[in-house]
Amino acid sequence: MSWLPFLVDGLLLGSTLALGAVGLTLTYSILGFANFTHGDLITWGAYFVLSLLLAWTAATGGGLGRLGPLSFGWPFLAALAVAMILTGAVGLALDRVLFRPLQRHGAQIVLVIASFGASLALRYGLAFVYGPEPAYYTREIQLAAPVVPGLPAVRATPDQLFVLGLTAVLVVGLHLLLTRTTLGRAMRAVSENPALARMVGVDPLAVARWTWLLGGALAAVAGVFVGLTVQVRPWLGFDLLLPLFAATILGGVGSVYGAVLGGLLIGLAEAFAVPLVGAEYRAAVAFMVLLVVLLIRPRGILGTHE
Amino acid sequence: MIADLGAYLVFFLVVALYYALLCLGLNLQWGVTGLFNVGVAGFVAVGAYASALLTGPGSPDHWGGLELPVAVGWVGAAALAGVCALLVGAVTLRLRHDYLAIATFGVAVTIQLVALNFTKLTNGPFGIVQIPRPLAGWARTPVGRNVLYLGLVVLVVTAIYVGLERLVRSPWGRVLRGLREDEAAAAALGKSPARYRLEAFVLGAMVMGLAGAIYAHFIGFVAPEDFLPILTFQVWTMLVVGGSGSNRGALVGGILVWGLWSASGALVATLLPQAMQARGAALQVVLIGIALAAVLLCRPRGLLGEEAVVSRHVRT
User: Fold this and answer.
1) In chain B, what are the domain boundaries?
2) A118/B109 Cβ within 8 A
3) Pick from B95, B286, B300: which is nearest to A105 by CB?
4) What is the rounded CA–CA span in Å between residue B165 and residue B138?
5) I need a labelling partner for B45 at 20 to 30 A (CA). Which of A86, A148, B19, B176 fits?
């Protein structure tokens, strides 16, 4: 049972990757290109919350309050909601000034190169404004307590449980959105067959706009998870890019459930690999999984087409 | 003052030619063949470390230190980068464009991890020091040694440029461009896409490995932070700015963008106070990113776009 202590660690990383990979898989299949800026959208979400919290404490002079055992209060949740909208807006703006004009020229692959450029600008823009030093939402130290009766090795802090709970809520919400709403059905239609979707009256531009908003909002939550459980740094999202792509391809490009599954699997694989290969090679685990998937089953677990 | 400026110009040109060489390698892969390599920094690192370990003095901290001639180191650098590319390419070249990009990105991340953590081989974050400079005995002053080295690098880059120009215009090069434009048509003419792609990928990576060695022997020191992912994106920007598909564009892009980078760096160093220097460096990267996006939007061909190459048999 020596792997048990790594379970919570893996689920936490898995939650972050799951939410990030959902946005990545949606933009990948609906907009049709591998978006290297997605990691930086995650970082922007984390920094939006940081800035909003700094503004809040400066304006009110008060603290961030507390909700039960959590290290933060209502201002934090409000900041998270605003950051989700703002990060979605950043995605929309990128689409407007960069990706959509390029898409008109054709050649999807140019979009990937353009996303390198945008990624550099977004990431180093944050480093310019905030400096390279890490920041924290709160300075509180939380103690991890056993969470599963009978398994004392599985320990988590209240903040970590909040991350896992919010992930579950968002995944269920996403499921309802995709299966019960017109928008969700339109998104799935464009993802599976853009030409057919247009024929039955789905507006691809509107779907693309909602895809950016939704992907950006989920990216913001993923970034805030990292900020809450690790720290806020300008590279936090870029460092997640490889595991995010691995999760997306493992789950199957275009499959939202696959992205959630892939994110959790990659997160657990990285955490459980730590006692085997050492923490320093942890980041290579996602790459190994990615290579195996590309060799054996390039369409991923739940993917329908390559 | 003039002497200082001249010394700086020599230093600048050696580094600019290092980037130009990287652009030539990437141009063969992406510009000519359409292979989406996002792992440039990884292949450069392999070449730099290979040559450093083959030629450097022994050290109790890490393996290597064979003290072989520098020429052997350079050949070894290109060879080892080529072997790495062969392994990576055999696995990934049959994938779609964007999967290849993601896979090569992963290769570079993994090589960076090895450079940082496999301390027995790479000495970890401390890097490898005292990498010998070729022709060092022929000049007495440091500037003289730099001038000599610049001469050597000019020779190497010229040789590789001429070689690549000939290759690109040869029947082999036509197959590569054919594969890039229409794989099915090229395959229908009996050309094996997998083989030609692998050849171009390996050859491009060998050029990158050699460039890494040239850098290592110039600076005399290599460490993992010399090969961060940003290096890959810098080289991509240089190639796109210069004109993807054109070897001349690759040379011009490498030298020009490095010039702009150095100039903006000097501007940051003189204008900003000491405490703001790190942030100023970040602003430089922001500008590189915006430049890449702007060139793609406004002038997708780059400064010197690809010229139409027609077989001389058809022309006459």
Assistant:
1) 2-227
2) no
3) B300
4) 32
5) B176
